[in-house]
Amino acid sequence: MAFRGLNTRYIPGNTTEDTTVLGQFIPKGTRIMGNIWAVHNDPKVWHKPQDFNPNRFLTSDGKELLKFDYFIPFSMGRRNCAGEGLARVEVFLYFVSLLQRYAISAANDGTVVSLVERFGLILQPTDAVLIIF
Ligand code: HEM
Question: Residues that bind heme, according to the entry (predicted)?
């Protein structure tokens, strides 16, 4: 019996054995991360995914939140975010506090997010985002 967690060559989140997914060979020890961006920007499941449109998450009367299998900001599966419950409460309190106290608008003709982005672990807008509080 092996205690993989105590094996110095085992890194949590890496594959523990050779495997094949949809014909793609993935050797043991490979770091696997879900491509959340691809899921959230898939036009097959989202209407105009690049548009900032919070209404897509609400019922037509705006009173209820809709749930979608393809909305996965905290990833999915066995390694999904361990802090999701806390994070959801934090984000809710943070934004409600801001919205209660400030009128928020975008400078420069209403464009908030630059269409040109810099790729990394996360996507960053290359232009400064100007928001007026
Ligand atoms: C809006 C806030 C947050 C977002 C969007 C977020 C998102 C994520 C994502 C996408 C992952 C990767 C899951 C994967 O590898 O498939 C992750 C992992 C993780 N998150 Fe978060 N997270 C947030 C806040 C937090 C907070 C507040 C905590 C702790 C208090 C936390 C703890 C963790 C831990 C421990 C993991 C690693 C889970 C594992 O590998 O088993 N996160 N998170």
Answer: 81
Q: Is the CB of 88 under 6 A from ligand 1?
A: no
pLDDT tens-place values along the chain, 133 residues long: 334 444 445 677 788 899 999 999 999 989 888 889 899 999 999 999 988 899 999 999 999 999 999 999 999 888 889 999 999 999 999 999 999 999 988 777 666 555 566 667 777 766 667 788 9
Binding-site members for heme are 81
Binding positions are 81
Q: Please answer whether residues 89 and 83 qualify as being in contact, where contact means their C-beta atoms are separated by less than 8 angstroms.
A: no
116: exposed, middle or buried (Cβ count in 10 Å: 0-12, 13-18, 19+)? exposed
Q: Is the CB of 82 under 6 A from ligand 1?
A: yes
∠84-129-34 over CA atoms, to 5°? 35
